[in-house]
């Protein structure tokens, strides 16, 4: 099965070398178990599609059956109020068709199925992101807050009407003055022992609740977050169940608000502002799982530390981030399904022939624009499946330790920024790759992009989330140090010293340069080893974290202001480290997934996709690898050359790769991705062929000689 | 004036070194003529604002007076048809208030003022991009085609009604099947000698005209591009004046079409599709400046080469690209004015204090996100002014040689992609930097971004334009070679050999590493020299062009297919080279502009901005500089460290830098950039201060000791 490596003379071009190596490369080198020739590798799209559906395949399939129905889908061109009405009506259909109650307790008609609930929920994005987010507000935030922050009393009293949509509700956490910094919200809930009521107040304009879905029109109640004050002590942010409107839709006494109006997208949701003046609610309306007030005004909580209590309460809301991660992956899949189909049918410019125009996905730049996005989408999809599994483990109680909860939050905080930004990048690149057609609403890309825009900043601003991840990395790092025996410490010292040597004199770079001389072949081979990719990606994360930790260390003994300044001076580096970590997580998830692909041809192609993703990350951060002496200039060049090679090799599989996403025309719904373009191309070619055959084609002036021209 | 450089011990941190150098740096080192201390440097915003208005300041000021009027401005939330009606009405107001006829001949009531026309036109983007583009369709494309492609007969017969908006018209060039490849459009105009008419036909669906502004509703005529066929010969694409609709708005016989419907933005423009079946127009409706058909059907043209003739005709339409470049810069300015103002008022999280929250622009990452965008906006603004000057020179006839026209087209093709993408990046970053508030339509960022999205692909797809630029660079390069004496050739050979040495053994890298040892100081100083920045940027362009040219050379003697494959295999490199060239042009324009800044303080600050832009480019392409041995790892690190330093230094000037853009609240029109945020912050702070002063503030549970807690 093994061809001899072709014996060619040396060449300076690393591209040529990479080609040569790849041409002679045997698959059994890439994976011991493979026995087919790479030229024969094909994706089994049905099997891969099934694998991509993941653990909660049934929930996804059921949700896709629903999202494929026209009455569940976005109608372009509706006014703000029409769109809001449509989506509200669709929420009713969701209740009718089931599926949105999966996460609620069986005792109340739910299924206690947390993973399946999110899997189905995130699929709604292909029908209309407004539908996804509005149902997320109703059941994933408003309802889930009652479920997770309330106790049996609240479950029995409030959940049935929430589940049935009889009571549409808002999740009143964010204020005009405070979004990311929830602990600093200013709305107060002061306990009045005399009347056994909490008194809700908005002390100033900045404390208005803002951007709340269901607040402008439909919401008749809210879970409201406010500073709980009793006996003169502020016990921090707690959640309260607060009625908003009467049966006629009029605000109850003391409640006021306004409409947030038109937004950049998600206009099927009635976001609005709320304010409260001396609004009284019964003591029992405090959602009291993590903090309670007794009849005499005494505060109690199962969690002593106010900080930990706050983060525990917020932690129950992680599912929002989980589902945005999944919905973003779904949107990227739809975008690529549209752009790749169109790129495979659309023709523009003749290049290698006088008459036949090229399919635009045959252009190198078009491939460079779209195929790496396919690779990242696969990585994000596999990473999301791991996140969903982790989430289900925690919320089902199967694996629900403190450490599990922390890991879940860190994982969600790491992946959500990457996938939401990736969806925006993908939708935009797909839009531009489809030219003017991509700008028409009928081709979906602009609408999806407009809707998903805010995914980057809500449910946790992406930068703020990455900073949380970085803090966790730094904490873990300092713990390793605290517990470290001399050996571990010594290893770090040696590594640091080695780094310094590299920066100081370039000695390691030099050594690698010399050893690389004439051995680009080996360097390319190494790069496609998963071990080499893992080492490069892991090394970068560890080095960055260690460097930042080292630079922040003086702050641990400094004043608050000095420590803050020091942290701020390193904030970019902190966030870069978190991003590197998240990228590594995606790469590991992709690599894990490869082990579960049974079909050889599929595994071969997907391994190339994984390599493209991994080496794409290395290329993106190439300057870092060069500066830090991890790659020689020669090897760095080989990275790009090999990426070009991988892209060319994946080009014939592009359609299969997006077909495996499993979305049908009822989900994609873009005129340019229906085959209309291929039909048009054929009609034009047939027309010209017939014209030539019949001798009726006009002569092209360009083909006339000067003499012929003069004669005419 | 010169302090001694502080004598500090060596440190490994290049950041610290950079700080030290900068602290001791004297301004008279940066510019011989400066006499003030950099700590005192302030921007004279009024003077800088005046300079930014450029040569056609009067036209801009007049246009801004108009765009500041509410009746000229976008009304959010209108339906498609309301928005179209509004914009059409606004076009009428433009006629009424003058300003849109500047480019037309004085004999017809115009001013023959081409630069002033574009300057005013691009300012319309701040009122509503739909207004800018719809007026661009009417007067910049439809009218300009009659002006530039027609002759006196057409000017007299058609222009008055076009100028007055009596005849709204479409520019019918693009077809569903062909956008970028205009030469391949399929609509035919066949001359019928018997009736002395051209017969317009759409042979198949792909040949429908598409995406045409004014085509869906308002257009009663069009300038139509079609293959001119007479006496059995196709003379290529020519333009024809074709009536579309009667006085009642009904299509004329043989004309049909449909509405493009909702788009991602620019919905004030009625884009649509048109098709023609045996539509007859008089022979005289051929816009015959560059090609004519005699009564007997004989074709004639002042330009013999059909290829050159085609590009000459298209070349008259370059003003569209020029104005998109300027409008994109204007939109980026508005976006930054919003985000910087908000970033300077909005507070979030306490960091260095227990009570006072930080202004978000004081966070390093927020600065890193916004301040480099300010620098690029200045670069793009100065580059646009040079483009506009070049454009005016050519169109006024003052400097109108073939070479001038080619330079103008190359310059427009280079700058339009960079500025349109930059505007989208800036609008998006500004939107995210404003969080949820940025997503509200009332804060303008999402609307502007949605509208400007298509700027990246219309009037020349950005990638296609960059490829044109690259072809020009490659042509120039091969000409230099063709004429080169032995000396020049030898220089290239030496350079190429040097490159090979670097890649092959890293010898040059090594040498630089060694010489850099202990002299980061000097390397930082060198980087802020304009000469060093120019050398780095120019070297990269020249090297990339030479490398690509070398790789394409075998194609010159190969078959068409082989040459096409070779070009395609290098298409990414080709486009990267063009982009590098365009970036260099922006840097040069910025550097030129500094010479014209009289106020010292302003020049000092703007020099930092220019350095940030220049070094930002170097950082963006750092891997290239490292791989190609142009920067040592040490020096590469210094680039990033110095950028951090520049950003921190520019932070206090951020507001001045955006104030100098000169847009008033009537142009910015974002609720979050009106001072409302500062008012809200003050209200909140005053509330808490009063509460503390009165002793009514609840005690924070976090501040209680364990003992106190137990007591409670």
TrEMBL record, chains A, B:
Residues 1-33, 677-712 are annotated as: Disordered. It is an enzyme of class 1 (oxidoreductase). One of its GO terms (molecular function) is fatty acid binding. Residues 315-474 form the Acyl-CoA oxidase C-alpha1 domain. Coiled coil: none annotated. Keywords: FAD, Fatty acid metabolism, Flavoprotein, Lipid metabolism, Oxidoreductase, Peroxisome. It is found in: Peroxisome. Residues 170-279 form the Acyl-CoA oxidase/dehydrogenase middle domain. Its cofactor is FAD. Residues 1-17 have a biased composition (Polar residues). Residues 544-672 form the Acyl-CoA oxidase C-terminal domain. InterPro entries: ACOX_C_alpha1, Acyl-CoA_Oxase/DH_mid-dom, Acyl-CoA_Oxase/DH_mid-dom_sf, Acyl-CoA_oxidase, Acyl-CoA_oxidase_C, AcylCo_DH-like_C, AcylCoA_DH/oxidase_NM_dom_sf. The keyword Transcription does not apply. Residues 19-29, 679-689 have a biased composition (Basic and acidic residues). One of its GO terms (biological process) is lipid homeostasis. It comes from the Bacteria. Its EC number is 1.3.3.6. Belongs to the acyl-CoA oxidase family. This is acyl-CoA oxidase. It comes from Agreia pratensis.
